[in-house]
Amino acid sequence: MAPEDPVTVSPPPPPPPPTPSLKTKIARRFVKSLAEVWTSRKLATEGGVRKRARRIKIAAYSSMARAVGGSRRAWSRALLAKLQGRAKRRCHLRSQRCLGLKRKRAGSRNMVRNEVSGSDKLRRLVPGGKAMDLCNLLEETSHFVQCLATQVKVMQSIADRYSV
Amino acid sequence: MSSRRSRSRQSEAVSGISDDQIADLVSKLQRLIPEIRNRRSDKASASKVLQETCNYIRSLHREVDDLSERLSQLLADSDSEQAAIIRSLLM
Which residues contact A108 (CB under 8 A, 6 or more apart)? Predict the structure, then answer.
C-alpha cells in the first residue's frame, strides 16, 4: 500500500486585476469631482456658469494630478501645491486683488547653458519646471503632456456624451 | 578672464548628462506631439520640438478652459428634468 503522497497543490492565486489605464484613472476622479460640482446647490444658480466653469477647471487639474499618485511626479506635486495655495489665497484674500508675486528669477539665470534653447518657455509651462535640470524637465514634460492630453480627451467625451 | 574660462569648464563638467540621453528624451517627447508626429521627418531639431511642445501645452490648456465652460453650460442649458437625469447618472 503505497502511502498516498498528496502533493499539496495550492490553487494558483487569482491573477491580480489589471491596473486601470491612465485614462480610466483620470476619468473616474474627474467624473466624481464633476458630479460634486453639478450637484452643489451653491453653484446651481443661473449666474453660476462662470463660477462652475472655474470649479470644473480646478477639478480637472487636481483630478489629473491625483490620478497619477499625487506625490509621485514632480509636476503633480507642484500642480497640487499651486492649487492648494490658490485655494487658500482665495479664501483669505478675497477682497484684495491677486498681486501676482514674481519672485525667484535671479537664481535661474545662472543655470547651466545647455545646447537646447527654448527650455525656458517650457519651464514656465510645466508645473515645477523651474527647479529641474534639463533631463528631468524633458522627462516630466513627456508625462505631463500625456496626462494633460488624456484629461482633455476625457472632458471631450463627457461633453459630447451629454450635449444634446 | 581666467574666471570666465574656469566657469565655462565648470559648466561643462556639471552637465554630466550625455547628449544621447537628451536626444532620447527629446525624441520621446516628439512622438507625443501631434504636430510633429504627423510629419514624415524623424529628425526635428530639439529647439523645434521644445517650441512645438510649448504650443501644444498652451493649446491643451485652452481646450481645458473651453471644455470647462462647455461642461458648466451643459447644466444650465438642459432643463431641470434632464439635469436631474444627468446628475443621477453620475452619482
Answer: A123, A130
Give the domain range for residue A50.
Answer: 22-99+130-157
Block residue for cell numbers 484629461: A151
Could you give the ipTM of this predicted complex? 0.71
- Top mean pLDDT of A39-43, A65-69, A142-146, B18-22 is at A142-146
The CATH classification number of B3-90 equals: 4.10.280
The C-alpha cell that represents B76 in the structure block? 444650465
What residue of A is the nearest CA neighbor of B65?
A: A57
Q: Is residue A83 part of a domain?
A: yes
State the amino acid at position B49 in one-letter form. Answer: V
Reading the block at residue B22, the C-alpha cell is: 537628451
A5: helix, coil or strand? coil
Per-residue pLDDT at B12: 46
B47-74 tens-digit pLDDT: 888 888 999 999 999 999 999 988 888 8
Neighbours of B41 (CB within 10 A): 6
- Taking contacts as CB-CB distances below 8 angstroms, the residues of chain B near A44 are 75
